[in-house]
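Entry type: protein chain
Record version: 2
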Amino acid sequence: MNGFDERFLTRNGLAARQLAVLLLNHEPDTRLPRVRDFAEELGCGNGTVQAALRLLEESGAIETAARGHLGTFLVRSERSILWRLSGLGTLLAAMPLPYSRRYEGLATGLRTAFEKAGTPFAITFMRGAGARTTALLEGKVDLVVLSRFAADRLIEEHPVELVADLGPATYVGAHGLLLREGASLDAPGLRVAVDPTSEDQRMLAERAFAGRTDIEWVESSYMQLRDLFAQNLADATVWNLDEVQGRIGMGGEVLPLGDEVTRDLSLRNSSAAIIGRTEGAKALSAVRDAIDLSTVTSLQAEVLRGERVPSY
């Protein structure tokens, strides 16, 4: 389909667009649902579905073959054409600011995986999982990248669902306890910096200092942390060690989190997750089928090892 095709504005054409979304979830050389099953799902007649299938074939989006009693099989599909006809448009994903090599590798892997799948994809960078989720719920973005730890909590509270889990060490390498030079963890009234926009950092800090009623919470962001420590305005915090090693570069001590916190959170907290709005279930299913997670993780690993220049 090159340029504007008025056939896709007809009743049959609109059915073809809806059918394109469904066909994004089918692999070549697999049997397609029966025409009447498609008709029931789309809420139209059998004849409309048959006309829609012909339109998709004529546009070069698919090739089908009837195999007698075995049914009709999808011989070939062009995902880029199906995606364009579906009207899903360019997917916009919100990611954390690319301040670490791990995040740069993740952005590189995601962009490349969607590109290979023929799915238009763009990235916007936003600080804080809460802010990214708000943008998702308001329809400003289609996908959000955050930790599995934060994703699980948000899924419980909002109409969003998990699209993909990329596995351990894809979001952060680890978190640790940062202690300002000269400060003591046992000091009463310990001033702990916490970023209210970061679900991960806030929840980890609360877990790390659970049971202490003397803590003074100091709101900050990663951009303010170095100054807070240098000006003696905060004593400790829990932070992403990728960031500490790569960008903050401040003095002080890095301590491990308690064993209980580490055991409970290490996998979920370090794993990158992608979530989307539940109301777009069919589109989310297409996204799940589109991305090759092994491509994302292998390219991220190459960036981390310095074997690939980040590109996103």
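Comment: The chain has 13 helices and 13 strands.
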